[in-house]
UniProtKB/TrEMBL annotation, chain A:
Signal peptide: none annotated. The lineage of its organism: Bacteria, Pseudomonadati, Pseudomonadota, Alphaproteobacteria, Rhodobacterales. SUPFAM superfamilies: E set domains (SSF81296). InterPro entries: Ig-like_fold, Ig_E-set, SoxZ, SoxZ_dom. Transmembrane segments: none annotated. NCBIfam families: SoxZ_true. It comes from Tropicibacter naphthalenivorans. Residues 10-103 form the Sulphur oxidation protein SoxZ domain. It comes from the Bacteria. Pfam families: SoxZ. This is Sulphur oxidation protein SoxZ.
TrEMBL record, chain B:
PROSITE patterns: TAT. This is Sulfur oxidation protein SoxY. InterPro entries: SoxY, SoxY_sf, Sulphur_oxidation_SoxY, TAT_signal. Residues 35-137 form the Ig-like SoxY domain. It comes from Tropicibacter naphthalenivorans.
UniProtKB/TrEMBL annotation, chain C:
Substrate binds at residue 239. Belongs to the SoxA family. The lineage of its organism: Bacteria, Pseudomonadati, Pseudomonadota, Alphaproteobacteria, Rhodobacterales. Residues 1-20 form the signal peptide. It comes from Tropicibacter naphthalenivorans. The keyword Glycoprotein does not apply. Its EC number is 2.8.5.2. Keywords: Electron transport, Heme, Iron, Metal-binding, Periplasm, Signal, Transferase, Transport. This is SoxAX cytochrome complex subunit A.
């Protein structure tokens, strides 16, 4: 699934120090559940994003474990504190070992 | 082949059991996952909110939100899926609120359950029945 | 007796309210500022058939509707992003990208609204995908895209996204009239073992339930549509194919003349509605 995976995140460009902001994230991924069968009746092996993390200046905001019941193109919305200006780092971990990263800066 | 009344009844009961069993098995699996998460500790009914539609238009993409003030983590389960696990949200020091929204798959009408591990080490549980409708002519 | 008749009458009135899966009265505004016309007076050629044309958005649940009201929440926009990359990628023997000739995708605003459209030089009605493939094979020296396949449908979604809010305005007259009439004939032709035409469901019964689902008017102003059912963008012709298949008929193929004709006719039934794709549907 290394091809066609595209992360998107939505973070406000600016906030006041101490603000709580809403972050949205979406990544294009099939999230093959491991429950489906192909045309000839063979089980299609599981291939999902199994973990998603968001950190700000090295401190964790949220760390999510994903199971196959998360929909195709996994979406998360959550809230983060912004103590100072800095950078959000988003990381998605694929079953196949691939890691997708995205960063967003925020000014205060 | 002909069946006596008794045999027919037995067959019916067997069939009924067959239909019920997968759900039973999954619900039991869900309890196992919960016990693993809580370590068997008591679980309160207050302190966590779970938002999910009463009727989901499509089981493939069901919007769900969880929120539990002060929680360190929230476990989300779909008790009627082949495997009950959906996600575990672990909140870090910079979480703005102990809440999150996502979109999940539901194999059919069932209870969605969320368990929060609160800051004091206690647990809270919320559950919601989501009816999953079948599609139009295409299914 | 009188009382009973009255109760019956009330029940008759109440029944459609309780059971009909009719269009709701919500307003579609995307990203808080892009107003979409989702209900409009029916175009003249539908005189005596429909008074109002209604986007399929109105037939969906609040949760599904919300997915389309913000470009970040709309999973279809992932594929628009992918198409932007494609737009800027040089391909083929000429080493050209879409951007080399056409500039920014936003410069194409309004194009989607008038397709399918008569092409004078080619002497045929062309869908947007046919026009794209003409560009690819003749101007770029690249391979044509398969009809309704990923790259093609993503690009249609990009073209649609930059035309959102503009009224669908497909020409039904002049040189397009012949194919338009063919499309109209197909719309009213019953197919399959179930002997159903497009009109039987989407004209005669929109707003009613089909099993647990709502029948819409079958408008295509929102295509490509991201369907929750298969979690991907769906093209108009592929949707037609699905519908015809569900009547238990042998279907036409995406890109066939029949479906080009049907797309032209069905698009014209939505003249006046806003271009809305990529939409989110069940």
């Amino acid at each position: 699934m290394a091809s066609g995976v595209k992360p998107r995140v939505k973070v406000p460009k600016k906030a006041a120090a101490g603000d709580v902001i809403t972050i949205k994230s979406l990544i294009s991924h099939k999230m093959e559940s491991g429950q489906r069968k192909d045309g000839s009746g063979n089980l299609i092996p599981r291939s999902i994003i199994n973990r998603f993390t968001c950190d700000f200046n090295g401190q964790n905001v949220i760390d999510v474990t994903l199971e196959p019941a998360i929909s195709t193109n996994p979406y998360f919305e959550f809230e983060a504190q912004v103590p100072e200006a800095g950078e959000f780092k988003f990381t998605w971990y694929d079953d196949d070992g691939d890691v997708y990263e995205e960063t967003k800066s925020i000014a205060v | 082949m002909e069946f006596t009344r008794r045999e027919t009844l037995a067959l019916g009961a067997g069939a009924a059991l067959m239909t019920v069993l997968p759900f039973r098995a999954s619900a039991a699996a869900a309890e196992d996952v919960i016990n693993e998460f809580t370590g068997g500790a008591a679980v309160a009914d207050a302190g966590i909110d779970l938002t999910a539609p009463e009727i989901a238009e499509n089981g493939n993409t069901v919007p769900v939100s969880v929120s539990a003030e002060g929680a360190t983590s929230i476990l989300l389960l779909a008790t009627g899926n082949p495997t009950p696990g959906v996600a575990t949200f672990n909140f870090g020091p910079l979480a703005g609120a102990q809440s999150a929204s996502t979109r999940i798959r539901l194999a059919g009408t069932q209870d969605v359950v969320a368990i929060a591990k609160l800051a004091d080490g206690s647990f809270a549980r919320a559950s919601k029945t989501v009816k999953v409708t079948i599609g139009g002519c295409g299914g | 007796m009188k009382f009973k008749a009255l109760t019956a009458a009330v029940a008759l009135f109440a029944a459609p309210m309780a059971f009909a899966g009719g269009a709701d009265d919500d307003n579609l505004v995307i990203n808080g500022d892009l107003e979409i016309t989702t209900k409009a007076a029916a175009p003249q050629h539908l005189d005596g058939v429909l008074d109002e044309v209604i986007s399929g958005w109105h037939f969906r649940s609040d949760e599904t509707q919300a997915l389309e009201m913000d470009d970040f929440d709309n999973p279809g926009m992932i594929f628009v992003d992918q198409a932007v990359d494609q737009w800027n990628t040089a391909e083929g023997s000429e080493g050209k990208s879409c951007a080399d000739c056409h500039g920014a995708p936003e410069d194409m605003a309004g194009v989607k609204a008038v397709y399918p459209k008569w092409n004078e030089a080619a002497g045929e009605v062309r869908t947007l995908q046919m026009q794209m493939n003409d560009c690819r094979t003749n101007r770029m020296g690249a391979d044509a895209w398969k009809y309704d396949a990923g790259d093609a449908i993503n690009m249609v979604a990009l073209m649609s996204s930059v035309s959102r809010g503009m009224p669908v305005n497909v020409a039904t007259d002049g040189p397009a009239a012949e194919l338009w009439q063919k499309g109209k004939d197909l719309y009213y032709t019953r197919t399959g073992q179930l002997e159903l035409s497009c009109a039987n469901c989407h004209e005669d019964n929109y707003g009613n339930y089909i099993r647990a689902d709502h029948l819409s008017q079958g408008q295509i102003n929102g295509f490509p549509a991201y369907r929750l059912k298969n979690a991907k963008l769906n093209g108009v012709h592929s949707r037609f194919k699905g519908c015809v298949r569900d009547t238990r008929a042998e279907t036409y193929s995406p890109g066939s003349e029949e479906f080009i004709a049907l797309e032209l006719y069905v698009a014209s039934r939505g003249n006046g509605l806003s271009v809305e794709g990529p939409s989110v549907r069940n």
